[in-house]
Amino acid sequence: MTSQSEDRVLDLHRRLSGAEETATERHAAYAEAIRGSFGRLRAGLEHAHAGSRVDDQDWAAYVAGLDRGLDELDRELAHAADRPAAEEKLLVHASRLELAGWRLRFSLPGVARSDPDGVRDRLAAAETELDRYASGASSREDVHRTFDVLRDGRADI
After folding, report:
1. pTM of the model as a whole
2. Residue 13: CA count within 13 A, CB half-sphere
């Protein structure tokens, strides 16, 4: 028997795998980049949701937003002129989906005041770095590094 948290992570894996498969079929020229981005997204969401205790209504709203975001990502890939453009779209969009997962953790009652390990600061740094990248003021490596710090340094909230 699995816990609700484990069931939710399994559901996320199913949703991400389905979206990844669809995207690689529709955009075969970018399949390697798609797989890499979805792998990072999957790992990031596992960290963000590990042990999370979100009520059913908030979880349903989050999952509906995730599904919309995955659909939007697929549509954006259709407009990518080449692999570098596709990689940029994948990085920005998948990272925003991951950040939404992290923000969900801070929507829980009592969490807003509690952040002894600085997760909120690392989340803000990741959001800022992604915005800098999207505006052309940062690099892919800087975004990955900032997200790695967010994931590796996360506290169990």
Report:
1. 0.91
2. 10
Q: Structural domain boundaries of the chain?
A: 4-152
> How many C-alpha atoms does 83 have within 13 Å on its Cβ side?
8
Per-residue pLDDT of 122-132, as tens digits, reads 999 999 999 99
pLDDT band at residue 111, thresholds of 50, 70 and 90? low
SS3 135: coil
Question: pLDDT tens digits, residue range 14-49?
Answer: 999 999 999 999 999 999 999 999 999 999 999 888
Question: Alpha helices of 27-139 — where are they, by DSSP H?
Answer: 31-49, 56-78, 83-105, 119-134
Q: Is residue 55 helix, strand or coil?
A: coil
CA distances to 17, 53, 54, 84 from 5, rounded to whole Å, are: 18, 7, 9, 36
**Burial classification of residue 111, based on how many CB atoms lie within 10 Å of its CB (0-12 exposed, 13-18 middle, 19 or more buried):** middle
